[in-house]
Amino acid sequence: MNFTKSEQQKLKNFHGHLGPYVLLGYKIGRLAVIKLKADHKKLNTNYYGPNRPPHTCLIDGLQIATGCTYGKRNIKINNKPGLPKIILSAGQKKFVVKLKQELTSTKQVYNSTIKELTWTK
């Protein structure tokens, strides 16, 4: 998935910069919306992982991609050690993603597919 200039600008405006975790969160969120065939009114997002940057930067990307927000209470943060795991759901359908590795650069996210960076089911 490539990022359009508009998507990059939205992410930069919301998050403050284009780091690897915000970009990956956006990629995961866009893929979940497509796979679950659901909009922000029916989606719920649960993040399980360290409650500190850079891991929590995934959450900003997820919010932009899915429309799930703290205000609507359809995104939750669950502080857990280890690599982040994200569960997106719409009704009975679920999309589960767990990071395979620590990300070290924006270039790595740009040049890698979701399959190379995460486990999905």
Task: Offer a concise description of the structure.
By secondary structure, this protein is of the alpha+beta class. It has helices at residues 5-15, 20-36, 57-66, 106-111, 114-117, and strands spanning 43-49, 75-79, 85-90, 93-99, 118-120. The chain has one domain (5-120): 2-Layer Sandwich (60s Ribosomal Protein L30, Chain: A).
Parts with pLDDT < 50 across at least 5 consecutive residues: none
Domains, number:
1
N- to C-terminal distance: 18 Å
In terms of DSSP E residues, the strand content is 15-25%
What is the third-level CATH name, the topology? 60s Ribosomal Protein L30, Chain: A
* Main sheet specs: 5 strands, mixed
Our Rg estimate from Cα atoms comes to 13 Å
Averaged pLDDT: 90
At the fourth level of CATH, the homologous superfamily is Tubulin/FtsZ, C-terminal domain
**Name of the level-1 CATH class:** Alpha Beta
In words, what does this structure look like?
By secondary structure, the chain is an alpha+beta fold. The protein has one domain (5-120): 60s Ribosomal Protein L30, Chain: A. 40% of the residues lie in helices and 23% in strands. Strand 3 (85-90) and strand 4 form a beta hairpin. The longest helix is centred in the first third of the chain and has 17 residues, at 20-36. It is globular, with a radius of gyration of 13 Å. The mean pLDDT is 90.
